[in-house]
Amino acid sequence: MRRNKSVQYLAGIPFAVMLAASTTSWAAPTLVSGASPFASCNIGGPGTLYVNAEVEPWLAVNPTNPSNLIGVWQQDRWSNGGAHGLVAGFSFDGGLTWRQTPLPFSACANGLGYERASDPWVSIGPDGTAYSVSISFNQSNNSNAVGAAVSRDGGQSWGNLSVLIADNEPTLQFFNDKESVTANPIKAGVAYAVWDRLELPNGNPYANLHTAAFRGPAMFARTVDGGVTWSSPSVIVDTPARQQTIGNQIVVNSQDGTLYNFFDLISPPFSKAAGKVAFVRSTDDGATWSKPQIISGLQTVSVTDPNTGQPVRTGDIIPEPAIDPATGQLYVVWQDSRFNGGQYDEIALSTSTDGGRTWSAPIRVNTPSGKPAFNPSVRVNSAGTVAVTYYDFRDLAAGNTTTLPTNYWQTTSTNGGASFGSELKLSGPFDMMTAPVAGGFFLGDYSGLDARGTSFLSFFVQTNSGNTSNRTDVFFVAP
């Protein structure tokens, strides 16, 4: 997502949170990323380019071969939006070793002819077909597109390169943003892509830093032939003037085939707190959709260094959903300041046991520390255990203005989200101040988390503290 040049946004029963009194740390995570394959590319300026900086990872487990994992990320992040390109990492030994290959979504990758790419995503269907998508765009003008590609060999190679939508010069007023892709877990060859399409009446929405988008509906495309072809894009959340969606993401009920598309619905007044966690439902494989249903307000106040006030760019307006594949119970997590009187973001969770008709009151998932927690991900394993991962600043000492110690955590629930405990430190502390700066210190708007049987697999970025020639890398851990 190019949020550094983004618009200013238009946009149950309470559960108790019980947290473990102690935490457990694990062995050092496995390094996934390597040297940039785009280091010699000189396309995409102007802006500050952070060569070898990886951000915004996502992960999928191959259901036909659970030892095969595919992760994707942005490679060589620009300060003012996107990256040189996207890269896929793949493993055939359950994450012990990894190799990498460029994804064909940018000019640096000799793929789509756009200067930059962003918002990597991957999902794998029941036949092992992997689907990846990208926002591809130019910095020199407003040309932009949503691209898709497919791998049938576990992530080693990618083909069937498709453009799902393109808004190219001389068209000025549209920008396609924050796409995701979800493979249907029970129908081989079927996958769904969703994104928001920002619009101004007569200009580029990203060129107007302090004006709101005219509107930003949610768009949908589907493939039923394994990514060989995709349907024409259709609107599934038709926002009126001065409203928009962002963070669209589909989960599928494996029992009855219902599709749920979750997103942040943003409307006046125009502030971060204007967002609402919402969803729409389809019972006919995406042909028709319900009206939006609001789950909760999204009361983010953004994230800053508690000691210096420097901005930290996070997924503060991006809700993350999950579904229990056995029961269909729905979960959604997001950043929220309601638990501390609006002082700083923490991690909120709500759940539904009746297909989204009713939702629990939001609870705090993270361990309270008096400091921000951010970028939550959520998944449910085969035993019904729920895991949430997130970053926080709990190790930051008062008066420390030279580093920003950051940890990455996992906490779990074995009672359907009623309480969380068994907190694990997955990584850290590392210095957030080494991260590339893109509207703030930036590791991405999201991190990868998937389930393999009863295990949880985390795929995330951390900094190489103090190393300005290799600021960040992607790591994998399976506690």
UniProtKB/TrEMBL annotation:
InterPro entries: Sialidase. Residues 224-306 form the Sialidase domain. The keyword Iron does not apply. This is Sialidase domain-containing protein. It comes from the Bacteria. The keyword Zinc does not apply. It comes from Paraburkholderia terricola. Residues 1-27 form the signal peptide. Keywords: Signal. SUPFAM superfamilies: Oligoxyloglucan reducing end-specific cellobiohydrolase (SSF110296).
